[in-house]
Amino acid sequence: MADTIVVTGAAGYIGSHTLIELLKEGKYTVLAIDNYSNSKAETYNRVRQITGKEFETANIDLCNYEALLKSTAHLDKIAGIIHFAAYKSVPESVAKPLLYYHNNLETLTNVLRLCEEKAIRRFIFSSSCSVYGNTSDLPVTETTPVQKAESPYAHTKQIGEDIVNAFALANSGFNAVLLRYFNPVGAHPTGLIGELPQNRPNNLVPIITQTAVGKNQLTVFGNDYSTRDGSCIRDYIHVCDIADAHTRALDYLAEEKNNMPVSLFNLGTGHGVSVLEAIRAFEKVSGASLPYHIGPRRAGDVEAIYADNRLARTELDWTPQYTIDDMMRTAWKWQQTIEKESA
Ligand code: WQD
User: Fold this and answer.
1) Collapsed DSSP state (helix, strand, coil) of residue 342
2) Where would you tag: which of 31, 105, 154, 182 has the fewest CB atoms within 10 A of its CB?
3) Could you identify the atom of ligand 1 that is nearest to the CA of residue 205?
């Protein structure tokens, strides 16, 4: 029996795409954990449909340590944990800070407690470019100083990284990779899974695709920034490229290539794309013009941020494959799947 990888938040957006890559590789058996607070169990059936592979699932709240321990009691060799489970809405975290601090930190400390109890030595943590805050030092590298978090969500990612570092210091033999995602967008090329906002999305790309089907109205939050076209610049990265980086990070730890107990990588394309450029890319791939209007700037938005991704390219042997056109094309295909299924 192959060793097991535990994936928390496995039914979520990035979790489900990573599940597909793990199952396709076939190196491990997988226990997929999710409480469906921001996802649907149906996503697992799509993963089975895409991969033709089976995997174990557990519907538990990671804030309940006893439930977590019980769900893994039968697993005698857990080769590693990929920890996605967390709330991730920036505006919601501003409105409900205690919900975010409690959930995002309690789930993390419980998963690390499990690592201690079951001598799990490989851990991958879902972090975010939002830990950099408002920096003018571009492109950001992994050594770019972390600024004051712009939201409780971003703060939970900063604290989460510190907790993993402290845990590694106290537990020799424990190795971790922190992956700082830039802006994950797009969907699986099959159009069977993608980002599934449980209520009104806040992120640009799902708002673009919902606007294209008449379910939303896109406002561009400011076109008076000091950028090439006045709109904010971000490093949009396809969710499948993000997923690929996770299996490579597992290999990196399994082959003991890490020279520090905790390694840190930026996951971005290295290219900045403005909001207006993203809209034009969508119009190009969808063949339709997108209605939008220019509104005031959104509080908390940074003018521009994009990654220096050389460390992930060299250390993880990772190369992003998808272009902004691919991101928009797959996001659009997924939105059309949603429309077909809800008709
Ligand atoms: C992108 C750009 C908006 C909506 C967030 C999180 C970050 C990470 C990625 C998890 C900005 C503009 C947006 C709209 C717009 N998530 N926009 N109209 O804020 O860069 O990052 O997602 O790790 O932690 O903060 O993403 O998609 O909300 O915004 O003009 O209706 O699109 O101003 O410039 P953001 P976003």
Assistant:
1) helix
2) 105
3) 27
What's residue 107's pLDDT?
98
Out of 132, 153, 225, 306, the active site residue is 153
Distance 139 CA to ligand 1 centre (A): 18
**Structure tokens of 238?**
């396809």
28 is a catalytic site residue: no
CB of 4 closer than 6 angstroms to any ligand 1 atom: no
Please give the Cα distance from 36 to 120 (Å, whole number).
25
Question: Is the distance from the beta carbon of residue 210 to the nearest atom of ligand 1 less than 6 Å?
Answer: no
Question: Cα(204) to centroid of ligand 1, in Å?
Answer: 6
Question: For tokens 């557990």, what's the residue?
Answer: 58
| Tokens 């709109």, residue located | 231
Rounded Cα distance between 140 and 306, Å, is 6
> Which single residue is written with the structure tokens 């709240």?
61
Query: How far from 254 is each of 72, 179, 247, 273, CA to CA, in Å?
Result: 21, 16, 10, 35
Helix ranges restricted to H, the chain: 13-25, 42-51, 65-72, 90-95, 97-117, 152-170, 204-212, 239-254, 275-286, 310-315, 324-342
Q: Token pair for residue 107?
A: 């789930």
pLDDT in tens, 18-71: 999 999 999 999 999 999 999 999 999 999 999 999 999 999 999 999 999 999
Nearest protein Cα to ligand 1, atom 34? 232
Distances (CA, A) of 165 to 93, 196, 264: 24, 32, 11
CB-CB neighbours of 31 under 10 Å: 21
Tens digit of each residue's pLDDT (9 = 90 or more) over 272-292: 999 999 999 999 999 999 999
Which residues on neighbouring strands pair with residue 150, listed in sequence order? Answer: none
Are the C-beta atoms of residues 319 and 313 closer than 8 Å to each other? yes
275 close to ligand 1 (CB < 6 Angstrom): yes
Q: Cα-atom radius of gyration of the chain, to the nearest Å?
A: 19
Q: Is the CB of 155 inside a 6 Å radius of any atom of ligand 1?
A: no
State if residue 171 touches ligand 1 by the CB under 6 angstroms criterion. no
- The encoded tokens of residue 343 equal 């008709």
pLDDT value at residue 111: 98
